[in-house]
Every structure is written in structure tokens, then in C-alpha cells.
Design a protein that fits this description.
Elements lengths: L1 H27 L1 H19 L6 H26 L7 H19 L3 H26 L3 H20 L4 E2 L5 H8 L1 E2 L3 E2 H19 L1 H11 L1 H6 L4 H27 L1 E2 L7 H11 L11 H20 L7 H20 L3
Antiparallel strand pairs: 1-4, 2-3
Helix pairs in contact: 2-13, 3-8, 3-11, 3-12, 3-13, 4-5, 4-6, 4-11, 5-6, 5-11, 7-11, 8-9, 9-11, 12-13, 12-14, 13-14
Length: 336
Amino acid sequence: MKALLEQSGKDLTKADSIASGVLKKIAGFRELTIILIILVIGAGLSIASPHFFSVNNFKAIALALSTDSIIVIGMTLVLISGGIDLSVGSVMGLAGILTARLWQTYNLNIVVAALIGLLAAVFVGFLNGLFIGKVGVNPFIVTMATMGMCRGLDYVITNGTPISVTNMPAAFRTLGTGLILDILPVLVLIMLIIAVISDYTLRRSSIARKVFYIGSSEKAAILSGINAQNVKMGVYIVSSALAGIAGILTIARFGVAPATTGEPTAMMTISGAVIGGASMLGGEGTVLGSILGIVLMNFIANGIVMLNISVNWTQFVTGAVLMIAVTIDYLMHKDK
């Protein structure tokens, strides 16, 4: 009996090792895997719905994922550093809502109003970085607190009533609704520019390497002379700044600023980043992988609409995908 139990234990250990090895092999070409999944889902949806494979629908998907893609870049940095940022959605809302209120009520120049909105977002990132990097408070707690504070300000500024800004200057609205050569949305181009610059920086710069070192082993990074506190502060400032840019672009796109702007964004961007290869334990992640994760999430959301399934299922599916992605991430790294 004892021998049987020992053999059973060995078999389970071997099976676990094989499963872990398979997951690690998948991670080795994660981006290619996501592309294949996107293609399979796209093919299935094009068969299920004649409206999916159309120029207008792809434009709609591209516009929908653009702001999330901008935010997921910052979220990727945060996850690589070993942290998390739950405040991005509320910060996104704050920047856009503040911009709209300053322009509508106080007649500020739209550029000045947008800069103030962006500075407010940067300040939230500074607070996150200060308490996480300098004071040493848990990132989950800090960003949950600033999430609540910013969402509260969103409701205070709007007084619970959406701010209509459809008559904003045409040049500003072009950022969210304009087309280049009647094909490429300006918003998508802005996202692509930010993504390319961020991807290159993350792969090539010495500052980015410090973020990876801190996420892999903060103690070792400190011993090697890296100022982990300053790097963490910079990471959270970048995350909030990108969320602020996304919020301002969202207002330019829709011409309205409700207090609920950005509510599902944190879950969406965390899901996209983890699906794309960013580890919840830190030290791993790419901009390209995270954006592909966002594309996948938006394909799923679009598919729900195309198949005439209630949109109320969208957040449920997002949460389920996040749970699956986090579980896979845990299984891949639990032996480290």
C-alpha cells in the first residue's frame, strides 16, 4: 500500500511537471499563440455573423480597444515591477471629466483644460508611487484607495450628471473621431505611436531593465545599486499619465463625460496584460503581448454583441478570462 501511494505521488509530481513544462513552452511564444487564438475567434465570428467581417465593424473594434491599449501599456509596466494599479479606470475618468468641466463651466482653452486634466492624473500617479515606493504600503491597498478617491471626485465634479461637450473645438474632437484618408482613425494612430515608442523603450532602455530587475527580485535590485523607490514612483506616474491621456481622448471621441467613465477599465487592462504574458508576480511582460491581450478581449466583447448575447455578460466573461489567465500565470511560476 505504501509503495502504491509513493508511486501515485511520483505520478502526480510527474504530471504536474509535464503540465508546467507545457505552459512554459506556450509562454515562450505567447504572442504568436494569442494571434492564432484571435484568428480562430475571428474566423468563427465571421461564420456566425455576416456583419463581423466588415470594415465598419473592424473600425469600431479598433476604436474601442485604442484607449484600453494605451492604458494597458502603463499596467504592463506596473505588473512587471511587481505591483498592480486598480486606479487606472477612475484616473481615466477624472482626467476626462475635469477637462470637460473646465472647458464647459470655466471657458478655459481646451488645450489648457486638457493639460490640467492630465496633470491631475499625473498627481494621482505620484501619490500612488509615493505611498507604494517611498512608504512601502501594499500596491493593492494604495491603488484601491486612490481608485475610490478619484471615482468620488468624478461624481462630485459631474454632480452625477454627464457633462455634454459635443460643441468642443473641431480640432479636439478630431483626436477622437477623425479619420486619416477616410480609413485610419486618428485615435488608433495615436495609440499605435504610443505603443511603438513604449515597446521599443521597454525592450531597449536601461530604465526599463531596472523595472524588470525590481519585479524579478527587489532585494537583489537594491543591492545592485538600483533606486527601487524612484523607479516604482516613475512606473505609477507613467501608468496614471497614460490613463489620463486615454480619458481625454475618450471625451474627444464621445463628446460626453459621465461619472462612470472608465469603470470596467482596470479589470480589462489587467486581463489583457496577463493574457499577453505579464506576470502577476512581476519581472515579465511585453507591450506587444499586452496589446494583443486587449485585442483578444475586445474580439470577445464584440462577439457577444454580434451573436445577440446580452452585453450584461461582458463583465462576467472578462472576469472569467482574468481568472483563467491568473491561474495559468500562477501554475507557470509556482515553482520559482
